[in-house]
Amino acid sequence: MSSEDWLDEGLVLLAEQGAPAVTLDRMCERMGMSKGAFYHHFGSMPKFRTRLLAHYEERHTAAIIERVEGAGDLSARAKLGRLAGVAVDGAGADLGVAMRAWAKQDSEAAAMQERVDAARIAYLRELCEGLGHAAPERMATLIYLVVIGGAHVMPPLQGEEMRGLYQLLFPLLDGREAAS
Fold first, then answer.
1. Greatest Cα pair distance in the chain
2. Looking at the whole model, is its pTM more than 0.85?
3. Do the beta carbons of residue 14 and residue 36 sit within 8 Å?
4. Rounded distance, CA 45 to CA 148, Å?
5. Are the C-beta atoms of 166 and 159 separated by less than 8 Å?
6. Nearest CA to 140 among 163, 173, 96?
7. What are the pLDDT digits (tens) for 71-116?
8. CA separation for the pair 105, 154 (Å, rounded)
């Protein structure tokens, strides 16, 4: 098993049960591996948690932006549509909620979450600017808040429900005048 396998399983466990459940014993049990195998890759639980945060940041922010940007020479509108599709697919909502809960309790997780939020809003702002929106920062923030809010209501909004909300937002992107 590679260190990436451990990190991927750590994210699954985090999404399922929250940060307190991500322990050495649970990780070894889920991986069917010994503590020695864990220590071989990470050295300690704090080092694992640090790498887990970096893994999340890479996989759930940088890699998604790269996927959207790597889809070819798309318009800003097409990129937003592709990003919306990526945002509602998979089990990212549970993981995002768990990561935010962890960030409330841990300064290292909070710093990572702040970077993730800033990077995501910056990318959305760039796309809104590409559309010529009069208030790209505020529109980017609004779009992002829909993503976060949809994950936090009970039951969380998923799939078609979230796509429907994005469809309601997209006409606002054409607005050239910002509301005060």
1. 60
2. yes
3. no
4. 29
5. no
6. 173
7. 888 999 999 988 988 877 655 789 999 999 999 999 999 999 999 9
8. 22
